[in-house]
Specification:
By secondary structure, the chain is of the alpha/beta class. The chain is built from 14 helices and 18 strands. Bound molecules: flavin-adenine dinucleotide. The site of flavin-adenine dinucleotide (FAD) has 43 residues, from helix 1, helix 4, strand 8 and helix 11.
Length: 514
């Protein structure tokens, strides 16, 4: 297969860049490893997307982003977002796609979240990501220039230095010319060659024991980029969401917007505790709230804390948070009357593949957008509701840049053929290896890190990686083995970055060894 643009991932970043470049007449192949295009972290986004408040300004938003990011943000990225963000929301989401954002008296309903100095967030009830993605997908599905391949797994990026049969290519500037892909139904492995490739493969929460992310968020993109020698930044900054539902049925995000609307964090004895940690109390930045909860759980010896919004009117709660209300009702908690048990979970990767304002990576002909990328916007911690906006801004910018014809992008070398093996892998090995990765990351590379814990994590993961690479080469490739190979690589990449970063800042909290 050959195309102008190969896009890996159908979350908000992937679909918006697909539309922009397809509108410009480019032939796009959009792949996702999932059964449907409605996948990734995007449909799980609840709270909303930053637009603009009544008394807002780019300077105010910039100051909030910098404050949340613990001063570690990249200024050009902030400028890009604060100057273009609300224009793109208006042009693309409101005017082009008609996203059904909630209204209040004929204007958009503006809400607030932690660390925002203004109510400036718009939302589709408490299912903003789904509301946006579904609408865009109706256009993606019918666009004549977009070919969709679901249940297709990107195994590795094709690069001149790694895959060309022509020895001369090793002296050329390193470049990407597509990806090797597994058709998960036929088990066939084949190359898709592309003038430009966009990685939009989302986050990595599943390398942690507790996460708000769905199954597919395994860090595939970081692993592929790492193996191709692409530069990554800030991987130590993993944002832990303070409030995910603590229940046997699994984790479910209890949006920050609840606290924005007045919900209070209390301990098992009913005492408000966040004001002991920060003057903004329950609305302090996420890293501070997460560690405050962690500390309170240790102090009280209780496995969770509680979020209480029962002082608000029932009808208001049900109307504003229908998905959270229904999810809690399913497990027997009526949030209009009862407190919600919550714990922190790995939620968002602030770092990723380093890119500029149009999504270009350090490897020619390779772009990265959305959560897999690191624009530098989030610095050491992400301001709530800024990531959907980042997907939109960089998705549009990249869709435009990638559509510019450049002669050098027309080179496609012959490559080695890829053989599929026949031996099936024992699923018990996969399950056990995931447990090792997830527990190691949670306990040693989680909310509170120490140098000893990080070194221990590196030793465990390096050993595991060599075992996994060994059976990866001998068995029939499936989604499970590929995700495991990527998971261990991404976990190691996070550990490497974390070990290098000796200063506690934002989400990265390092404690001196006793
Ligand atoms: C529970 C939750 C709530 C959130 N709430 C908000 C919010 O209110 N506001 C906000 O701004 N942000 C929020 N976020 C963050 C935001 O949703 C994500 O950062 C954003 O949606 C990421 O979009 P993306 O396009 O980069 O990737 P994703 O939406 O994660 O999509 C990734 C895509 O890549 C595909 N993929 C991955 N690997 C491969 C592979 N190897 N081969 C083929 N396909 C692959 C996946 O199948 C998927 O289609 C939330 C996140 C979560 C988890």
């Amino acid at each position: 297969m050959k195309t102008d643009i190969l896009i890996i991932g159908s979350g908000l970043a992937g679909v918006i860049s697909a539309i922009v470049s397809a509108d410009k007449g480019k032939k796009v192949i959009l792949i996702t490893k999932t059964k449907t295009l409605l996948s990734g972290n995007t449909p799980h986004a609840q709270g909303g997307i930053i637009f603009k408040g009544i008394n807002d300004s780019p300077e105010k938003l910039k100051s909030d982003i910098l404050k949340a990011g613990a001063g570690n943000c990249w200024n050009p990225a902030i400028e890009e977002l604060v100057n273009n963000g609300s224009k793109y929301v208006k042009k693309w989401l409101i005017d082009r796609f008609n996203i059904p954002f909630d209204q209040s008296e004929d204007t958009l309903h503006l809400t607030s979240e932690a660390a925002h100095s203004e109510p400036r967030i718009i939302h589709v009830k408490d299912q903003t990501g789904k509301g946006i993605q579904e609408k865009i997908l109706t256009e993606v599905n019918n666009h004549p220039n977009i070919q969709i391949l679901t249940e297709h797994f990107a195994v590795d990026l094709l690069t001149l230095s790694h895959h060309s049969k022509n020895p001369i290519d090793i002296y050329k500037k390193p470049a990407c010319f597509g990806a090797i892909v597994l058709d998960m139904n036929s088990a066939e492995i084949f190359p898709i060659k592309a003038k430009n490739t966009i990685l939009a493969s989302g986050g990595l929460g599943q390398i942690y024991l507790h996460t708000s992310n769905p199954e597919e968020a395994r860090g595939d993109g970081i692993a592929m980029a790492w193996r191709a020698g692409v530069r990554c930044f800030n991987l130590e900054y993993i944002q832990f969401h303070p409030t995910t539902l603590f229940h046997d049925t699994g984790r479910f995000l209890i949006s920050e917007a609840l606290r924005g609307e007045g919900a209070i964090l209390i301990d098992k004895n009913g005492r408000e505790f966040m004001s002991n940690f920060h003057s903004d109390g329950s609305l302090a930045p996420r890293d501070i709230v997460s560690r405050g909860i962690h500390q309170t759980m240790l102090d009280t010896g209780h496995p969770c804390v509680y979020l209480d919004i029962s002082h608000k009117k029932s009808s208001e709660i049900i109307n504003r948070f229908p998905a959270i209300y229904n999810k809690c009702i399913e497990i027997g908690i009526d949030i209009t009357k009862e407190q919600i048990p919550v714990v922190p979970s790995a939620h968002y990767s602030c770092g990723g593949i380093g890119v500029n304002s149009v999504g270009k990576t350090s490897l020619k002909r390779l772009y990265a957008i959305g959560e897999v990328s690191c624009t530098g916007l989030h610095g050491a911690n992400r301001l709530a509701s800024s990531s959907l906006l980042e997907c939109l801004v960089w998705g549009v910018n990249t869709g435009i840049d990638v559509s510019i014809e450049r002669d050098e992008n027309n080179y496609f070398p012959e490559i080695w053929s890829w053989e599929q093996e026949y031996k099936e892998i024992d699923p018990a090995l996969i399950a056990q290896d995931w447990l090792t990765i997830k527990n190691t990351m949670w306990n040693y590379v989680g909310l509170i890190r120490t140098k000893d814990r990080l070194i221990r994590a590196r030793t465990i993961l390096r050993h595991l990686q060599s075992e996994i690479e060994e059976f990866y080469r001998k068995v029939k490739l499936t989604r499970e083995i590929l995700e495991l190979r990527n998971g261990v690589q991404t976990a190691l990449s996070v550990v490497s970055a974390t070990l290098e970063s000796r200063e506690s800042r934002g989400t990265h909290f390092i404690q001196e060894n006793e």
